[in-house]
Amino acid sequence: MNILSDVFQRGLSVANPDRLAVSDGKYDYSYAQLHIAIGKVSRCLSDLHVQRGDRVGLWVDKSCRALAAMLAVTRIGAVYVPIDPMNPRLRVEVIREDCQLKAIVTSADKFSHYCQQQPVDCAFILVDELPVNESQNAGSGLHKVLTWQDIQQCSAQLETQTVHPDELAYILYTSGSTGTPKGVKITHHNALAFINWSIDELSATTKDRFANHAPWHFDLSVLDIYGALGVGGSVHLLDEMTSYVPNKLIEFISKHAITIWYSVPSALQLMLKAAPDLAIQCPQLHTLIFAGEAYEMKALAQLREAFAAARLYNFYGPTETNVCSFYKLPSQLPELLPIGHSASGANITICDQHGEQVAVNQHGFITVVGPTVFSGYWGMEPNGTDRYNTGDIGYLNEQGELMYVGREDHMVKVKGYRVHLAEVERAIYSHQQITECVVLLDQGQRLHAHIACKKGTHLSLLSLKMHCAKRLPKYMLPEQLTLWPVLPKNRNGKLSRRCLSTSHPAHLQPHSITA
């Protein structure tokens, strides 16, 4: 396989054409149906003058049709740009203007935001069947807006454009430190290095049914989609309303007989909390993978106990490298969870601030070289090196395993001492009553612990400090405590430090305690 469109072709070659390829809860597409849909959208994109290298936005909820559009973009050699479907139009405009989108795949309700302000240089493809009201196209011309009815009338373009593996496949926008989103450029070569490795590592087959829990603008979704289609298996799309409702998630896994699950830890923790017998309810679930944030060891032990016979994986890697290391969990968990060994052909070293490799057990920056490392940010000059400093602090233990400590920007100074917030969080997490924890440095330069406890329990600041004092030096003890029913999460399901540091959502009703 040389480019992403080859992944589906590979699946098509090994799967029965009538075999299920993708399900969105409303429609089921077989491999034959998805193949035809991809061909029709490819033809429409070509008719809209979308050419090799052009960018196409996907501002749309997950669906079989939207997936067909995504794969069609790669087939004609264009570049797809997934956009959070919950983003307001103004945010979409920032991305559209930044990477000069030639077309946007969206829905009629989202397109309505462009009724009076449709950009003249951008076409729209709507995944809805209803024809668009002419008033919605004032000043733009109907040839710039195609509905699914229009697509159905197109003849399929089944040939694949000749594309070099080093050309861009997709762009993932992440929140930049300045508040302006940055586009991470991923080539076909980058993506396939991870996809091929993951298919081999997981030994996935045509019988496997992948859940797509992550939103498409989040890099975890790459495995769900291409891992499934690359082996002739099926991918089952979770909608936004279901993603963090534990009972709905459990019902989804059971109903669709999901065999491979990949998500951030918080989704797994929610399900296991709602159903400690999750493994019994979903006996076909043989592989669980988590990534995106650290899995607290106490909660991980519960997962390992519940899924004693299943394969559990910890994947590590920022968007800029995709998955570059992994750890397959043994039946008996270690005291600290490694991020393991290199994956996807990566070469990982621990370096000091000058880029020099450090000794075993010495902390430094996790630095990655390899085929999955991105080609740079859209619109920015390349940094002139193929090495990527993740900004994460880690070390290599005596067993040769990579260990994750935390983010460089989570290193703070308290009373003149350097403190890594992750170390304080680990000590707090070891308390039996605590289920979630984030530690921040407040404006008074004090350590502020935000925690959620088991239902029906309460924790005072004094008791928390006494607990931590057995594990941490005095200067690392929290001086302020806020109790939450549940800690806020961002759109990708990760604990949201930004939300904690700005405002408290009224419906969560946190209670603060100060020393």
TrEMBL record:
GO CC annotations, alphabetized: cytoplasm
Superkingdom of source: Bacteria
Gene Ontology molecular function terms on file: phosphopantetheine binding
GO terms for biological process, alphabetical: amino acid activation for nonribosomal peptide biosynthetic process; secondary metabolite biosynthetic process
Domain AMP-binding enzyme C-terminal stretches: 423-494
NCBIfam families: AA-adenyl-dom
The name this protein goes by in its record: Amino acid adenylation domain-containing protein
Biological source species: Pseudoalteromonas prydzensis
